[in-house]
Each structure stands twice: as C-alpha cells, then as structure tokens.
C-alpha cells in the first residue's frame, strides 16, 4: 500500500486533487522536474510521486513548492472556501501563458499578471488598438517592438503603443513573470511622484 491513502470524505478529496494540480501548475509554467527539484531541494523522484498521487502531500513538501512558484499555499491545495470575503481571481491559460486578471471591473485600464513559460520561440509580432505597460517581476523578458529587439530584466519596465508590431516572451529556458497594464487607445499610464521640496530661500538683501 502506498502512502497515498489520504483518508475519506472532503479532506480525502482535497488531498487527492493536490498531485494533479501540482503537475498542471508546473507544466503550465514550463518548469521541469529537475528545475523544481533544484529550486525546492526536494528530489525529482519525490516530486514525481507527489504529482502522481503516490506520495501524501505535507507542509514540509508543499511550502517549498509554493515558494518556488510564488503562490499562496491554498492555490496548491485547492482547499474549499471557508467564508473568506476576499475575491480570488482565477488564472487562465492563453496561448500557453498563465494569465491572472488583477482588475475586477471593466474599464479603460486593465491589470494582469502573466507567467510566460521558458523556451526560446520565434517572435510573431502583432498589432491592435491600445497602449501597454510591462513590468518584469522575475526572469528575463525579450520584447520585440517594431524593428527593435530588447531585453528587460527584473525590475525593468517598458511602455508602448500596441498599434506598433510587438511581441514578448521569455529570453531563455526560464519562465518570466510580468505585470501588464493595458489601456484603450490614448489611455497612457501616469506615475505621480511627490514634488521635490522647495529649496529654502536665502536671507534677504539688506536695504
């Protein structure tokens, strides 16, 4: 008997779904078992057994995995709601990318978090109405913008008119995480900063 005997009832159902959820999250982000093992310190064989349901989930295993994926622990477990009033925005997969909407209501400006799987791909620039602002949270982003081919690292940002042919993706084999703000045509991003303190005036000239 394997250690996948997870009990019965609701708890058993929740634990039974952890393995498949872990596999979907890892493969959806383009992360290999070897890369996850290196990031978590958990062996490949243990991770494989955990994903296949042959290893019982435990905090000792799930916490490092949650840190590696930069997600909350309950996203790995998929625990049932317990009256938490916070709205949980469900991620979706678009062209192999994990997209998490951060804006609840429709409007001129929409915010998203995108997780783009690693792997070098041939750029396919496209155009559409709008204006976009990108901020790299983790990894390295390749941005093709018109006839320019740019690389953005963690903490760097770019903004552009989306009527200009553009494409962006991971620069290398590692996934890249991006914060995207998208606005309708003519809606640009505005960053306000506190005005600099006014320099003190010198003493008045004697009369």
Shape: elongated
Largest sheet: 6 strands, antiparallel
Strand numbers in spatial order across the main sheet: 1-2-3-9-4-7
Count the beta strands. Answer: 9
Structural class computed from helices and strand pairing: alpha+beta
Q: Order of SSEs, N→C? A: HHHHHHEEEEEEEEE
The parts where pLDDT drops under 50 for at least 5 residues are 1-8, 190-207
Strand content: 25-35%
CA distance, first residue to last residue: 99 Å
Helix fraction? 25-40%
Mean pLDDT: 78
Describe this structure in words.
This protein is of the alpha+beta class. Helices cover 25% and strands 25% of the residues. It has helices spanning 9-16, 18-28, 33-40, 44-52, 59-69, 73-77; strands at residues 92-94, 97-101, 109-116, 131-138, 141-145, 148-152, 157-161, 166-170, 176-183. A six-stranded antiparallel sheet has the order 1-2-3-9-4-7, with no helix packed on it. Helix 2 (18-28) crosses helix 4 (44-52). It starts with 8 loop residues before the first helix and ends in a 24-residue tail after the last strand.
How would the blueprint of this fold be written?
Blueprint: H1 9-16, H2 18-28, H3 33-40, H4 44-52, H5 59-69, H6 73-77, E1 92-94, E2 97-101, E3 109-116, E4 131-138, E5 141-145, E6 148-152, E7 157-161, E8 166-170, E9 176-183
Antiparallel strand pairs: 1-2, 2-3, 3-9, 4-7, 4-9, 5-6, 5-8
Which characteristics define this entry?
25% helix; disordered C terminus; alpha+beta; three-stranded antiparallel beta sheet; 207 residues; 6 helices; disordered N terminus
